Amino acid sequence: AQSVTQLGSHVSVSEGALVLLRCNYSSSVPPYLFWYVQYPNQGLQLLLKYTSAATLVKGINGFEAEFKKSETSFHLTKPSAHMSDAAEYFCAVSDRNDKIIFGKGTRLHILP
Amino acid sequence: EADIYQTPRYLVIGTGKKITLECSQTMGHDKMYWYQQDPGMELHLIHYSYGVNSTEKGDLSSESTVSRIRTEHFPLTLESARPSHTSQYLCASSTSGEIYGYTFGSGTRLTVV
To answer: In terms of C-beta density within 10 A (0-12 exposed, 13-18 middle, 19 or more buried), how is residue A77 classed?
Structure first.
């Protein structure tokens, strides 16, 4: 069975500081991994995905994530936070049969 | 530009009313999903469909029902709304064979009073 654990339901960073949102996964097969972002009163939007090509994946809005098999992690980072990054972020894993399991989400707060 | 549309965006309705939440996609995706999202953000899969005339219940038990008569349309119906149904409902779609992830609609925020 697959699962995703997001560490920290709320994360606060100062504007201009590094953003780090943590995600660990469990999968019995090589996984596909995703990060989604949800802005207030919106649906989820795909930020980036890992599908077994490069382990460092670049996404939209300056975000990137690194797949580390030895640590079963897929943490999301951005070098410099912007106020517009305040949103909810979901890590997700797929078993390659198209069914995606979502984490519980992390709400990112940006402090001025 | 959204390729998956949900209507209405917001709905306030009285207890006992029947409601249908609409979801349509123009991408020709064969798979469609309904999620219920609670105030704490967590997403719960309540229904999914892998094609026309195919529907399955998801991980979270729901009193709602769905139908899939056309590829592009996946409506969700509540026969008798209750305050416990107050939530955000998100529709999503995906295509078989390639992993693009899911495409989500903007959601319907339902309040039952």
So the answer is: middle
Chain A: nearest CA to B52, how far in angstroms?
Answer: 17
C-alpha distance from A42 to closest chain B C-alpha (Å): 5
- Asked if the C-beta of A40 comes within 8 angstroms of chain B's C-beta atoms, the answer is no
Residues in chain B: 113
CB B17 within 8 A of CB B81: yes
Q: Give the residue ranges of chain B where pLDDT is below 70.
A: 1-2, 97-98
Contacts of A96 (CB under 8 A, 6+ apart): A29, A30, A31, A32, B99
The model's pLDDT over B38-62, given as tens digits with 9 standing for 90+, comes to: 877 889 999 999 999 999 999 888 8
**pLDDT tops 90 at residue A25:** yes
- Least CB-CB distance to A32: which of B43, B99, B107? B99
CB neighbours of A88 closer than 8 A, spacing ≥ 6?
A: A37, A38, A105, A106, A107, A108, B41
* Minimal CA separation from A104 to chain B, in Å: 5
**Interface check A25 vs B, CB under 8 A:** no
Provide residues of B within 8 Å CB-CB of chain A. Answer: 4, 6, 9, 31, 40-43, 90, 92, 94, 96, 99-107, 109
The DSSP letter of residue A96 is: S
> So what's the pLDDT on residue A104?
93
